């Protein structure tokens, strides 16, 4: 049977780890007679190549692996220094465990090697306290990292992943074609491109999820590109339903042409690695478009005053605004920090901040017990510290296996941890029996262990991840037995020690899982989604008031950073929730992804409408009253749905507000229609979310 893509990745990784680990191990143990260096040269590739999930392929993985070397050296030196005292080692484990686990907030490129670095500290912080071996240990780590990086480049490096820039270029070029001629790209193709731009569909090594300016700008450009193709797909589907595309007025046609040209130029710049086109031309086209709409809307003899035409123009304007956001964000990604603030400040709040401040915001934003990343870091750190205390107090032989069990078997829910522990205990029991029989049969024939280690590693690393936890644990027991039998005289009692240590670590992991957020993201996804909806609810009336404020020279966007903070916490909770076993989803059938969508839409509208709409100095009282009444109703809807997420009570929705009282032939009509389209979309999405809620008592 030909392995699939996932199987090919596992096989490739197992060959790379086996080659790098065996070369370093044999060279130090048999060539240089350095057992300490051999041990670290063996476990470093295993830690960084198997236990870690380093994103990318080939050179990308090698570069990330090499970047971990200074951190590995520091952690091994720290662990070696603290190994002489159980209290010091426990304190170090608590701090190191938290920091490495919490590094997930920096994105997969930073957090990928964290479990492997954790293992290196675990190895070094256990007795015997041997500072005289520090040089050999560090040499083994350095050689192990170098060999793994070489194997990642030259041994089955795998096909290169499609970069995020190329994915973005493909999407923008398709958008350019669809904007120029709606018949050239089908709605199905546009939706496929939108789905492919989701960060969950992008290779981990290419995801722009870091806290730095470049990643934030690329992520914003990607979100804007998704919105562009989604809008074009909706317009294409609507024209297909109508049987014929609606007649396009001259201002809309000119603006669509500018959108198409800008998207095409952005795609070409991304492929060539050049700066994107300036956003000035598109911004001028938007201003000109708005300037033409206003007087025509006030002229009863102009066909452009028809509300149907104005609504179609609102769709074109939204398309152009999304394109402007994309091209401006790409400029930030290329140029970096600007000498002058980039308007609008709320939309590109990160563009002028130093990198240290951006990192500080990401860390501070997740340093809360409502962050699932913070919860996981606390759970893992406490589990590892408790395991180190137990292993050091009871003087368990090979006590690092206790911590390794906590590290590898811990899950985000107590139920999932218990399932993993059950399978691991069965696998370790079978593996220990097989390893004990092997030790009795081979005795001290070191050459036999040396011959069996390489095929044993290859089989364990290739089949274990594919067959499940039980097989992985059992096969790994055989591998460590074959390795330790060559380093020091070993008897069948090594298998007994491993069983005791794994059981001890499993019990500690279960205890921590039971005491620290045992339900995983189940509760947190409710809380964070409810907080997100309430925060979105406050933005709607604030945006309406910004547009209706007749005293302002220009509308001022409301503060959206608090909502963006809630959005990031909700995204992390939702991502973890989706990764947990389906049993945890029982009674959680709300449309969580829909909540994220309405949040994106609300924040974007709150940022863009005050930026591109003219102030309304003379709004008819009926229209202003409708806008304020609708905003208040949407805020109440958001609060009601949020309360529905966190309680089991059902509150019937109140009466829907009547339709807008739009004035005829009035200069404020275009802005009011743009506002109506935004409010109507929010209302439709909130209704869909409320209909999806199926909470069970």
What descriptors fit this protein?
mainly alpha, elongated, 697 residues
Describe this structure in words.
With 697 residues, this protein is an all-alpha fold. Helix content is 72%, strand content 0%. The mean pLDDT is 83.
Summarize the structure.
This protein is an all-alpha fold and 697 residues long.
Main pleated-sheet profile: none
- Total helical elements: 26
Helical amount: over 70%
Question: Which value, in Å, is the CA radius of gyration?
Answer: 30 Å
**Which class do the helix and strand fractions yield?**
mainly alpha
Secondary structure tally: strands: 0
SSE order, one letter for each helix or strand: HHHHHHHHHHHHHHHHHHHHHHHHHH
Mean pLDDT: 83
Query: How much beta, percentage-wise?
Result: under 5%
The unreliable regions are none
What is the fold's blueprint, element by element?
Blueprint: H1 5-31, H2 35-51, H3 59-67, H4 69-82, H5 86-102, H6 108-111, H7 114-124, H8 134-154, H9 164-180, H10 187-196, H11 213-242, H12 250-272, H13 280-298, H14 307-335, H15 355-366, H16 372-394, H17 400-409, H18 414-442, H19 446-467, H20 469-487, H21 493-515, H22 522-548, H23 561-579, H24 592-612, H25 621-646, H26 669-692
Helix pairs in contact: 1-2, 1-8, 1-19, 2-7, 2-8, 3-8, 4-5, 4-7, 4-8, 5-7, 5-16, 7-17, 9-10, 9-11, 9-12, 10-11, 11-14, 12-13, 12-14, 13-14, 14-26, 16-17, 16-21, 17-21, 18-20, 18-21, 19-20, 22-23, 22-24, 22-25, 23-24, 24-26, 25-26
């Amino acid at each position: 049977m030909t392995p699939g893509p996932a199987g090919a990745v596992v096989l490739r990784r197992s060959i790379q780890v086996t080659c790098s680990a065996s070369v370093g191990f044999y060279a130090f143990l048999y060539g240089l007679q350095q057992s300490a260096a051999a041990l670290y040269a063996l476990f470093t590739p295993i830690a960084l190549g198997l236990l870690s999930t380093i994103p990318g392929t080939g050179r990308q993985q090698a570069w990330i692996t090499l970047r971990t070397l200074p951190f590995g050296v520091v952690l091994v030196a720290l662990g070696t220094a603290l190994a002489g005292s159980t209290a010091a080692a426990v304190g170090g484990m608590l701090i190191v465990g938290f920091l490495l686990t919490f590094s997930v907030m920096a994105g997969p490129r930073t957090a990928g090697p964290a479990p492997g670095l954790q293992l290196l500290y675990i190895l070094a912080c256990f007795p015997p306290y041997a500072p005289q071996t520090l040089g050999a240990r560090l040499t083994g780590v350095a050689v192990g990292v170098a060999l793994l990086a070489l194997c990642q480049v030259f041994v089955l490096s795998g096909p290169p992943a499609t970069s995020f820039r190329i994915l973005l270029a493909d999407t923008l070029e398709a958008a350019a074609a669809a904007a120029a001629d709606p018949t050239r790209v089908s709605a199905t193709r546009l939706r496929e491109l939108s789905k492919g731009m989701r960060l969950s569909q992008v290779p981990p090594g290419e995801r722009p999820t870091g806290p730095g300016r470049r990643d934030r700008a690329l992520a914003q450009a990607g979100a804007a590109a998704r919105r562009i193709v989604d809008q074009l797909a909706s317009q294409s589907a609507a024209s297909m339903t109508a049987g014929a595309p609606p007649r396009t007025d001259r201002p809309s046609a000119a603006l669509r042409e500018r959108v198409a040209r800008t998207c095409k130029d952005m795609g070409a710049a991304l492929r060539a690695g050049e700066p994107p086109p300036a956003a000035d031309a598109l911004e001028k086209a938007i201003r000109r478009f708005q300037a033409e709409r206003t007087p025509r809307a006030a002229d009863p003899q102009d066909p452009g005053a028809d509300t149907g035409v104005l609504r179609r123009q609102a769709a074109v304007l939204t398309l152009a605004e999304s394109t402007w956001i994309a091209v401006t964000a790409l400029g930030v990604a290329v140029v970096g920090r600007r000498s002058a603030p980039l308007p609008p400040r709320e939309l590109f709040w990160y563009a002028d901040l130093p990198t240290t401040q951006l990192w500080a915001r990401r860390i501070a934003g997740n340093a809360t017990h409502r962050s699932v990343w913070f919860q996981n870091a606390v759970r893992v750190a406490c589990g590892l510290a408790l395991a180190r205390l137990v292993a050091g107090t009871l003087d368990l032989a090979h006590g690092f296996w206790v911590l390794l069990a906590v590290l590898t078997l811990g899950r985000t829910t107590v139920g999932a941890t218990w399932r993993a522990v059950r399978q691991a205990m069965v696998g370790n029991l079978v593996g220990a029996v097989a390893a004990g029989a092997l030790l009795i049969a081979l005795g001290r024939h070191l050459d036999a262990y040396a011959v069996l280690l390489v095929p044993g590693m290859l089989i364990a690393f290739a089949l274990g991840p594919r067959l499940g936890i039980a097989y992985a644990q059992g096969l790994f027991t055989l591998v460590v037995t074959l390795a330790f039998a060559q380093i020091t005289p070993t008897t069948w009692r090594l298998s007994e020690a491993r069983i005791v240590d794994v059981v001890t670590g499993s019990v500690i992991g279960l205890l921590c899982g039971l005491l620290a957020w045992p339900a995983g993201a189940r509760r947190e996804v409710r809380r964070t989604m409810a907080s997100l909806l309430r925060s979105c609810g406050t933005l709607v009336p604030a945006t309406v008031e910004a547009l209706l404020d007749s005293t302002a020279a220009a509308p001022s966007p409301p503060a959206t950073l608090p909502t963006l903070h809630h959005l990031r916490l909700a995204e992390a909770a939702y991502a973890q929730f989706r990764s947990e076993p389906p049993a945890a989803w029982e009674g959680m059938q709300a449309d969580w992804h829909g909540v994220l969508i309405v949040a994106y839409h609300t924040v974007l509208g709150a940022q863009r409408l005050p930026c591109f709409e003219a102030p309304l100095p003379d709004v008819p009282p009926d229209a202003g009253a409708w806008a304020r009444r609708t905003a208040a109703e949407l805020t109440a809807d958001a609060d009601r749905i949020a309360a529905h997420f966190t309680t089991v009570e059902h509150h019937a929705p109140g009466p829907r507000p009547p339709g807008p009282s739009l004035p005829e032939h009035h200069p404020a009509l275009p802005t009011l229609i743009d506002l109506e389209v935004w409010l109507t979309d929010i209302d439709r999405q909130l209704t869909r979310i409320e209909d999806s809620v199926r909470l069970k008592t």
